[in-house]
Amino acid sequence: MNNIVDGKIVTVPEIATIEEIKDEIQDVKTFYLKFDNPEVEKNFKIKSGQFVMLTVFGAGESAISLPPSPENDRFHLSVRRVGKVTDALHALQVGDKVGIRGPFGNGFPFEEIKGKNIIYVAGGIGLIPLRSSIVHALQHRNEFGRIIVLLGARTPKDLMYQYNIEEWLKIPGFECYVTVDQPTDGWTGHTGFVNSLIDKANIPVENTVAFVCGPPVMFNSVINDLMKRGLKDDCIISTLERHMKCGIGKCQHCAIGRTLVCTDGPVYTYKQIKTLGEEI
Ligand SMILES: Cc1cc2nc3c(=O)[nH]c(=O)nc-3n(C[C@H](O)[C@H](O)[C@H](O)COP(=O)(O)OP(=O)(O)OC[C@H]3O[C@@H](n4cnc5c(N)ncnc54)[C@H](O)[C@@H]3O)c2cc1C
After folding, report:
1. CB-based contact 254:242 (threshold 8 Å)
2. Which of the two residues, 215 and 209, has the higher pLDDT score?
3. What is the arithmetic mean of pLDDT over 146-163?
4. Whole-number percent of the chain with pLDDT over 90
5. What is the mean predicted confidence (pLDDT) over 259-273?
6. Measuring from atom 7 of ligand 1, which residue has the nearest CA?
7. 65 within ligand 1 shell (Cβ under 6 A)
8. Domain end (from 51, 70, 104)
9. Quick check: is 79 in a domain?
């Protein structure tokens, strides 16, 4: 098999150099990367909702969501430290090398949701995969109705991408509601789980889709509340996280029933997720 097929790095990771490392929240860093091969750098095309396989040499490979299109910013990945590969990544320095394969996966269905209101519900680092979709929607503002972000985190210090939210709030019509589970001194905002924002924001139901991403406990209660409010299961979209190995539908490592999350997903409607017969 050729290594690069349709602009996709398929089998052998392409080498990239870490140009900058930014601390986001506790245990989450953003790594700004540049491919060593200028041809790869030029031809690497990203679709919102896709992911790459990131190699940390000597540690292994992990699936990581893609950022908004690099036309707006340098290519970067935000990664939470949870285990072997991500620990090793967090120990790297500017100038160190990593490997990248991809982009893989289906991406968000923007064509199908044109003209609709979009509600993004993100819990904690669930904003990482949703951010590229929010940026896409804001860049194509006239193709969508209301664009509402509901963001929840454990504490004010765990709120991701505050600097992005400040920029987005300057865009007319963008709505954002934020909550924390545990307020700390000086917090004057909303307190409570992220689903409590559904009522606060008085979200629309007609002609509306919701993108939901966050830990399983949050995901299930948000879905319940959205459906109680009247949203249909095919209007709720999420990304599934499964252990990935090959990323190209060969090894079956990420199979859930008949679906392979690496190629059929990671983006699914809740209607599809329900048919997979597995707890999120
Ligand atoms: C499509 C996709 C996109 C992702 N995007 C991001 C991202 O943008 N940023 C980010 O920080 N993480 C993201 N993840 C999760 C990331 O892939 C895992 O956290 C990472 O692979 C963990 O590797 P590790 O070797 O550090 O941890 P390990 O040592 O393998 O595991 C540590 C713990 O995390 C659990 N775990 C590991 N991988 C997964 C997984 N894929 N799903 C659920 N639980 C897992 C393990 O069961 C274990 O409890 C994404 C996952 C997928 C499938």
Report:
1. yes
2. 209
3. 95
4. 72
5. 92
6. 64
7. yes
8. 104
9. yes
- Chain mean position to CA 220: 18
Are 144 and 260 within one domain? yes
Judge if the beta carbon of residue 241 lies within 6 A of ligand 1.
yes
pLDDT score at 3: 78
Cβ–ligand 1 distance for 168 under 6 Å, the answer no
Token couple for 55: 């190699």
Higher pLDDT, 233 or 42: 233
Rounded CA separation 30/231 (Å): 34
Provide the CATH number for the domain around residue 243: 3.40.50.80
Q: Whose CA is nearest to atom 38 of ligand 1?
A: 243
3-state secondary structure of 47: coil
In a shared domain, residues 144 and 24: no
Task: Please list, in sequence order, all residues whose beta carbon lies within 8 angstroms of the beta carbon of residue 159, skipping any fewer than 6 positions away.
Answer: 25, 151, 153, 178, 180
Q: Which residues pair with 100 in a beta bridge?
A: 14, 54
Count of domains for the chain? 2
* 83 pocket-lining for ligand 1 (C-beta < 6 Å): yes
CA distance 92 to 83: 15
Q: In the block, which residue shows the tokens 């398929």?
A: 10
Whole-structure pTM value? 0.93
280 domain-assigned: no
- 8 A C-beta contact, residue 139 and residue 175: no
Q: What are the residues facing 272 on neighbouring strands?
A: none
Tens of pLDDT, residue by residue over 47-88, are 899 999 999 999 999 999 999 876 667 899 999 999 999 999
Reading the block at residue 210, the tokens are: 């919701």
Q: Is the CB of 82 under 6 A from ligand 1?
A: yes
Provide, for the chain, the percentages of residues in helix, strand and coil under a 3-state DSSP scheme, each rounded to the nearest 5. 25, 30, 40
* Residue 96 sits in the same domain as residue 144: no
- Please give the residue range of the domain that contains residue 71: 4-104
Query: For residue 70, what pLDDT is reported?
Result: 61
